[in-house]
Amino acid sequence: MSAAPPPAPRAPDAPRIAVLVPCHNEAATIRGVVVDFLRSLPGAAIHVFDNNSRDGTAAIAREAGALVHPVALQGKGNVARRMFADVDADVYVMVDGDGTYDASAAPRLVAKLVDEHLDMVVGARSSSERSAYRAGHRFGNVLLTRCAGVLFGRSFDDMLSGYRAFSRRYAKSFPAHSAGFDIETELAVHALQLRMPVAEIPTDYGARPEGSSSKLNTWRDGARILLRILRLWKSERPLLFFSLGALVCATASIVLALPLIDTYLETGLVPRFPTAVLCVGLMVLAGLSAASGLILDAITRGRTELKHMAYLATPPYGTWGAHARSASTE
C-alpha cells in the first residue's frame, strides 16, 4: 500500500465516502477514472485495488491521487472481498476501472443511498452505443437477471452492473464467495436474501477508450454467472431446489410403473423386473431428495438469521448510527 495526497476536507456531518476501484491492466483508463471521481466526490478517498497488473496501472493510479492496494489472488470476486474487508467508510462506491461508467452520477447514487436509508443503489447501465454494450452482453444480462428474479422473488433491471453504492452495513455483512465476474450476482442475491432496502438509478454507460480491452468473455463468464445462480439457488432456496428434484424422480417412477401395474393386475406377474427395481429406486431417491430439502432449508434459515444479525450489528449511517458510534467510544 502506498501513500497518496489526502482527500479534500469534508463537512463534519458528511458521510465518509470510499470509492473502490478493482483493476487489472487498466493503464489506459485508470488516471481518468481517479481524476473524475475526485472531482465528482470531493472529500472521498479513492482506493484502487490492483489485481496483478503488468502495465503500470498501480503507478499511474498512485500519481493521480489514489490509494493503491495490491491483491494477489486473481479475480474480481477476490478483489471485492479485500475491498470490503480493508476499507472503513460510511458509504462505499464500487466502480470498474475501465472508464465506461459516468463519474458525475456518483453524487446521485450516494445521495439516494443516504437520504432514503438504503443499503445498495445500483447504477443501471443506459447506452445507445453499440460498441459500449454489445447485443450479446445485453441479452445475457437480461436472461440472467430474469433467472435471478424467478429464483429469488424479485430482482434488478441491471443485476450485473459494476457501478454501485453500498452502506457500511452491507459491506461489513457481505460474505463474498465468488472469485471472478460472478461477484455481481452474489452482491445482488445477498441484498435480496436479507430483504435489504435497495434501488436503481439509470446511469450513462460508454464504450471503452482506444487502447483498452475488456476482460469479460461473453460465453465463459456468462456460463460462470449462470452456474453461480444455480449454486445460490441450491444453497439459499434448498427446499425448492430439492423438491423439484423429488418431483422429477417421483413422476418418472410413476410413469414407468403404470404399465407394470396394469400387467400385474391382468396377469399377476411382473415380467419386467429391472424396471420395477428402477421405479422403486427412483421413488426412494425422491423421498431422500425431499428430506434433504427439508433439512437444508432449516440450516439455511439459521444461516440467514446469522447473516441478518451480522447486518444489524453494524450501526446505520445517520443520527442513530452517530449515536451508536459515540456510545461505543465512551
UniProtKB/TrEMBL annotation:
<keyword id="KW-0808">Transferase</keyword>
<keyword id="KW-0812">Transmembrane</keyword>
<keyword id="KW-1133">Transmembrane helix</keyword>
<dbReference type="Pfam" id="PF00535">
    <property type="entry name" value="Glycos_transf_2"/>
</dbReference>
<protein>
    <submittedName>
        <fullName>Glycosyltransferase</fullName>
        <ecNumber>2.4.-.-</ecNumber>
    </submittedName>
</protein>
<dbReference type="InterPro" id="IPR029044">
    <property type="entry name" value="Nucleotide-diphossugar_trans"/>
</dbReference>
<dbReference type="GO" id="GO:0016757">
    <property type="term" value="F:glycosyltransferase activity"/>
</dbReference>
<feature type="transmembrane region" description="Helical">
    <location>
        <begin position="273"/>
        <end position="299"/>
    </location>
</feature>
<keyword id="KW-0328">Glycosyltransferase</keyword>
<dbReference type="InterPro" id="IPR001173">
    <property type="entry name" value="Glyco_trans_2-like"/>
</dbReference>
<keyword id="KW-0472">Membrane</keyword>
<dbReference type="InterPro" id="IPR050256">
    <property type="entry name" value="Glycosyltransferase_2"/>
</dbReference>
<feature type="domain" description="Glycosyltransferase 2-like">
    <location>
        <begin position="19"/>
        <end position="138"/>
    </location>
</feature>
<feature type="transmembrane region" description="Helical">
    <location>
        <begin position="239"/>
        <end position="261"/>
    </location>
</feature>
